[in-house]
């Protein structure tokens, strides 16, 4: 039985990945390590309560002793690192937290994982360390040249404290591979959307506000372009990289769904109005606000390498994925209410406090 140690596994993408692993593979164990900051929500994992293949540990990846105990007890074969502070606006207000968690946390995890690599004469040990990154480390693409994309050899050029911290973490992972021969991969994804996303991010924020007839704040002119990737497609890509990715390689994971932010907002208005049968959800809710500092104009990924090497491709068109996402939020009002009110932190956090 293979053991996956997944950090940040109570967050948006991490929890979807944990569910994907347990739904797809029978003979595995998932050790889920999450600090349960504001973005960690164990209600995301309610469907696997009682599944003995899932072990949850409340711990911070910066805590070397806690990480050493987890590795010693469960002897993971694979480490997949999702744990990170990830909201750009928060990084602008408090960059130190992002440097501490995203950089030093990753280095701590690398040190512990490398110490466990190949222990006991190779009878067990970490076979692969996968760092889950972001396309934001590449910086910004021009709006007037849609044929230019981020590729794995695109120079790193981050523009926000968040993307700078993720770029630094990626470089440490690469350095551990180059220096020590440690088996690593780095994935860099475009903007994810789907179930369980914290409502400070664009799509769930707009869905939640639209359903409540609240203002829909749009930065600047609304023409900033993002490449949208349905979270389940992303999880499948990471699973493939863990299993079959060539050691040392970087894999870009993109959705081929580039859309301006204002298009996304108007599409959400249209679909929310239909799904909720609510004529009051209209473009009148849109409110343009002062642009974000250092706001990148366009992201776009060419996922040619992962398609050629591993056979992965984005299966979910945006027009399909956005409807699935809206209907998920409509069908899970209790989850939304618990997150927006903050009560999601109470019951489950108390249950796992100190474990």
TrEMBL record:
Domain NAD(P)-binding: 5-323
Enzyme class: lyase
A Gene Ontology BP annotation from the UniProt entry: nucleotide-sugar metabolic process
InterPro entries: dTDP_Gluc_deHydtase (IPR005888), NAD(P)-bd_dom (IPR016040), NAD(P)-bd_dom_sf (IPR036291)
Cofactor(s) of this protein: NAD(+)
Record has Transport as a keyword: no
Pfam families in the cross-refs: GDP_Man_Dehyd
EC number from the UniProt entry: 4.2.1.46
Molecular function as annotated in GO: dTDP-glucose 4,6-dehydratase activity
Domain of life: Bacteria
Catalytic activity: dTDP-alpha-D-glucose = dTDP-4-dehydro-6-deoxy-alpha-D-glucose + H2O
UniProtKB keywords: Lyase, NAD
Alphabetical list of CDD domains matching this protein: dTDP_GD_SDR_e (cd05246)
Family under the similarity heading: Belongs to the NAD(P)-dependent epimerase/dehydratase family. dTDP-glucose dehydratase subfamily.
Protein name stated in the entry: dTDP-glucose 4,6-dehydratase
């Amino acid at each position: 039985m293979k053991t996956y140690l997944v950090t940040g596994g109570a967050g948006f993408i991490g929890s979807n990945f944990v569910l994907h692993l347990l739904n797809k593979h029978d003979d595995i164990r998932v050790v889920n390590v999450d600090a349960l900051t504001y973005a960690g929500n164990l209600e995301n994992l309610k469907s696997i309560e009682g599944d003995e293949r899932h072990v949850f540990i409340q711990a911070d990846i910066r805590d070397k002793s806690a990480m050493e105990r987890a590795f010693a007890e469960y002897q993971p074969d694979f480490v997949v690192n999702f744990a990170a502070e990830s909201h750009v606006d928060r990084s602008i207000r408090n960059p130190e937290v992002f440097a501490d968690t995203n950089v030093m946390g990753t280095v701590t995890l690398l040190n512990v994982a490398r110490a466990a690599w190949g222990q006991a004469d190779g009878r067990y040990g970490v076979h692969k360390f996968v760092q889950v990154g972001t396309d934001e480390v590449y910086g910004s693409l021009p709006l007037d040249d849609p044929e230019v994309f981020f590729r794995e050899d695109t120079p790193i050029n981050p523009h926000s404290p968040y993307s700078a911290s993720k770029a630094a973490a990626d470089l440490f992972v690469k350095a551990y591979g180059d220096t020590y021969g440690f088996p690593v991969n780095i994935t860099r994804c475009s903007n994810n959307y789907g179930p369980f996303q914290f409502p400070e991010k664009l799509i769930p924020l707009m869905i939640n506000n639209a359903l409540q007839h609240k203002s829909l704040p749009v930065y600047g002119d609304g023409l900033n372009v993002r490449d949208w990737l349905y979270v389940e497609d992303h999880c499948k890509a990471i699973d493939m990289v863990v299993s079959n990715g060539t050691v040392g390689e970087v894999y870009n994971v993109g959705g081929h769904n580039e859309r301006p932010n204002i298009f996304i907002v108007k599409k959400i208005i249209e679909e929310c109005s239909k799904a909720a049968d609510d004529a009051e959800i209209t473009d009148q809710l849109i409110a343009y606000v002062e642009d974000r500092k250092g706001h990148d104009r366009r992201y776009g990924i060419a996922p040619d390498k992962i398609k050629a090497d591993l056979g992965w491709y984005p299966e979910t068109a945006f027009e399909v994925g956005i409807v699935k996402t809206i209907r998920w939020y409509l069908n899970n009002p209790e989850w939304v209410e618990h997150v927006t009110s903050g009560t999601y932190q109470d019951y489950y956090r108390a249950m796992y406090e100190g474990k």
